[in-house]
Amino acid sequence: MNDASSPAADTLPPVLDVWCELQCPDCRAALDDLRALRERYGDRLEIRLRHFPLEKHKHAYAAAQAAEEAIEQGQGWAYVEAVLGRTGELAKQGEKLLVKVAGELGLDAEELDTALIDGRHLLIVDADQAEGKAIGVTGTPTYVIGGERLDGGKSQEGLRARIEEIADRLLAAE
Questions:
Q1: Averaged pLDDT score across all residues of the chain
Q2: What are 48's strand-pairing partners?
């Protein structure tokens, strides 16, 4: 554990939590903003995927678990982007698509399939969802940065600019 005076505490980047659901068309629409934020800030802003599968999307819970396995295999964002780019196919194919995408990205698709069967990532997904509910997340995408919650489920309009404004302020304060 670092105390506030340790050098490691001074170098931690601000965090943008992105409450996302991989079968959500609004999250798919947010991809360009997320790419732009990752490109602009690089390692200076930690962008964390947080899971908030919605009941109305049948395969969202499995997709969240698959994303966690992809993160473990070192290709989390690539996997998230690939699945979000195919939300329509996910609705039709379900877990078959999740495994297929893993194979296309060179991940261990068999291990991803096993992770879906054995449920090894259930606790992470459940914890994210519970935390999201506790802080008032009701839809996706929802962003939390610098203690401020921004709802992207209704509209992405102006959200990237607002996130950049908060991130710039947090980075300037370091």
A1: 91
A2: 17
